[in-house]
Every structure is written in C-alpha cells, then in structure tokens.
Amino acid sequence: MKSLLLIVSLLLLDACTSEQQLTKEQILLQSIDELENRFEERKLSRIIEYISENYLDQSGRKLRDIKRIIQLQLMRHKTLHVFSTVKEIVWIDDNNVDVTIATAMGGKPIKSASILTSIRADMVTFQVSFKLEDEIYKVQSATWKWARPTDFL
Fold this sequence. Notes:
Layout: H1 2-17, H2 24-41, H3 44-48, H4 63-76, E1 81-93, E2 96-106, E3 122-133, E4 136-146
Antiparallel strand pairs: 1-2, 2-3, 3-4
C-alpha cells in the first residue's frame, strides 16, 4: 500500500512540475516575436520559415513575390530594428487568425513608441492573416498601409 501511495505521489508531483501547454494566443504572440527577431537578423531563409508556402494576398502576390519584397527591404537596411504593437487579434478558428500590427522599422533600436516622432523609421500598419502550420502561426496573407506614431498607442 505504501508503494502505491508513493507512486501516485510521484506521478502527481511530476504532473505539477511539467510544462503547461501554451494557449493559442501565446503561440501566436511567440510566432510574431520570432518573425520580428528573424527580420532583425536579416536572414531571408529564416524569415521565410514563418511565411506559408500557400501565401496569397489580395494583390495576387505569392510566396516567391514576397521573398523578393523582403529581400529588397533587407538590402535597403544595413541594420534593422523592429518595434511593434499588436492592435487587434480576431480569431477565425483555432488555426486561423487575423492580426493588426503597427510596426516601426529603423536603423537604430526603438525602445518605445514615445520616440517615434523624433526618429527616422518606416512605420506601417499590417493586416496579417496567420494560419497554424507545423505548430507555429505562419503568415498566410498580408496587406499594409503607412502608419503614424499615434497608431502605436
């Protein structure tokens, strides 16, 4: 009886100490963070891992087109620092989500939205559709428009 009690106690202790499963929102936010980090690394092959092979946007651009656009952006910036604010998350279902993200990209670190009026940075608001693939949310399509510093508040 004591050995059974010991086994049950060990199983319960193991269950308490094991990692908690991440929520779909945590996985989404980790995917967005990782995508930003990869842009700052400026490595196209690592960025593309977070874009769906089935990418298709409203302008008819596919993955190969997006690769070229990203490559041009990377060539344009010797260094790249990204600051973003997730504005809205709309869940379509567990695997599909639309996200509005205000993003500033500049050559120097951007610590907060308060400095956006005094630095030179490209500011863009993205409407991004993500799809869960391979346990990460990948960009399925995106549209963008120029942003203002107030879009980060």
